[in-house]
Write a structure and sequence with these properties.
The protein is mostly helical and 86 residues long. The protein has one domain (5-84): Methane Monooxygenase Hydroxylase, Chain G, domain 1 (Up-down Bundle), CATH 1.20.58.110. Helices cover 84% and strands 0% of the residues. The protein is elongated, with a radius of gyration of 17 Å.
């Protein structure tokens, strides 16, 4: 455990940040999973709707620093290709 006040504060901040980032990462993964599930069920309308909701979430996570922009681009491309194949 940290003994210096600034180190204790930093530990508190880090824990708060970790929990917030975990929540955002979960939201990201859930939105991606919804597109994949709809595509696996061969439901093009639901997959398209889920993709339209997932893309802004992915972009938001890039701006917040949760994922790298190249990873976001890769996810968007893969999901878009998955929906297009339906």
């Amino acid at each position: 455990m940290a003994n210096i006040a600034s180190a204790r504060k930093r530990a508190r901040q880090s824990e708060k940040s970790r929990q917030a980032n975990a929540s955002k990462r979960s939201l990201l993964r859930s939105s991606i999973r919804k597109v994949i599930d709809a595509a696996n069920n061969k439901d093009k309308d639901a997959a398209t709707a889920a993709l339209q909701k997932a893309v802004p979430v992915i972009d938001r996570m890039v701006n917040k620093g949760i994922i790298h922009r190249n990873k976001a681009a890769r996810h968007k491309q893969q999901l878009n290709n998955l929906v297009r194949e339906l």
